Amino acid sequence: MAAVLLRRISPPIPLCNLRMIATCRHVQAGQKWRTSHGQAPDGLRYGPLTDKPDWSYADGRLAPETARRKRRMRNRLDVAQRISQLLTEIDEAKENTEQRSSSAQGKY
């Protein structure tokens, strides 16, 4: 009985009060400008807001690293190692090509 009475008294929720996340282009304002100036497209991937600690102690000590910051540093180290490995492979391939071309020229 009370539930039926409450349904009659409480008004329905208007649709204008619902919050939704918009993913259209105008929400990503400034993305073109940031990428053209060498910054992250969303402003949160790298830079002082994500790389530096939020606070420090009054005596100057840094705050302990968060798990997210540690994960970002690990990811960046992995990417750097992968880049270094690929560059080494490119250098080796260039050397092999030069050796093959010089040995092929010596035969003729």
From TrEMBL:
One of its GO terms (cellular component) is mitochondrial large ribosomal subunit. GO terms for biological process: mitochondrial translation. The keyword Coiled coil does not apply. The keyword Ribosomal protein applies. Keywords: Mitochondrion, Ribonucleoprotein, Ribosomal protein, Transit peptide. Its main location: mitochondrion. This is Large ribosomal subunit protein mL52.
